[in-house]
Amino acid sequence: DVSAGGLGVMLSALGLGSVIGALLTASLNRVQHRGLLQIGALFILGSCQASFSYVGYVTENLWFATSFLVLAGIGSAVFNTTNQTVLQLLAPDHLRGRITSVLQVQPICMAVGILLTGAAADVWGAPAVGVTISLMAFSVGVLILLFSPRMRRLSMSDLRTN
User: Fold this and answer.
1) What local confidence, expressed as pLDDT, does residue 100 receive?
2) Which of 101, 119, 136, 143: CA 20 to 30 A from 110?
3) What is the rounded distance in angstroms from the CA atom of residue 21 to the CA atom of residue 84?
4) What DSSP string describes 18-75?
5) How far apart are CA 151 and CA 135, in angstroms?
6) Per-residue pLDDT reduced to its tens digit, 76-91
7) What angle do CA 72, 21, 130 make, to 5 degrees?
8) What angle do CA 84, 103, 14 make, to 5 degrees?
9) What is the pLDDT of residue 159?
């Protein structure tokens, strides 16, 4: 329930976080445990988006809630960059172009997800849907952490040998 100006503030907060996350990712080139970095970024993204939805609903303070969007933007940039890097480095040379083309489907999937999320928000309310989908992302991270030892052990030295 914010005006166009409020939406601009929220999108700017995500953008600021994304720029910070991109710079952070560029400085993390020596981090060996890329799998844990990716899972950690997913945790930050999911928990901060859920916190934004909940805190925004409870306090109705846009500026306080928006601080969580900056952190979510950082998590999103680190996750997406690390994800694409890992996919490209794990792929055999003859499949890298195909992997890149599959990654281009992401914006289409996001558009469909936004459409469905908007419809769900009309029914159950934006805060409830925001918290729910954010906690689903967080839960995916927990499941990967618990049930994917390969992802937990994934390191840069593994990626360089493929």
Assistant:
1) 85
2) 143
3) 14
4) HHHHHHHHHHTTT-S-HHHHHHHHHHHHHHHHHHHHHHHHHH--HHHHHHHHHHHHHH
5) 20
6) 999 988 888 888 888 8
7) 15
8) 70
9) 66
DSSP readout, 121-139?
HHHH-HHHHHHHHHHHHHH
Q: Hunting for tokens 């419809």 — which residue is that?
A: 119
Any idea which residue has 């792929």 for tokens? Answer: 91
Q: Cα(139)–Cα(49) distance, rounded to whole angstroms?
A: 13
Question: With contact defined as beta carbons under 8 Å apart, do 67 and 159 qualify?
Answer: no
CB atoms within 10 A of CB 41: 24
Cβ(44)–Cβ(134) below 8 Å: no
| pLDDT (tens digit per residue) in 106-150 | 889 889 998 999 999 999 988 899 889 888 888 888 898 888 888
Q: Please say whether the beta carbons of 141 and 46 come within 8 A.
A: yes
pLDDT band at 60 (very low <50, low <70, confident <90, very high): confident
Q: Above 90 in pLDDT, residue 102?
A: no
| Distance (Å, whole) CA 6 – CA 157 | 45
Burial category of 153 from C-beta neighbours within 10 Å (exposed 0-12, middle 13-18, buried 19 and up): exposed
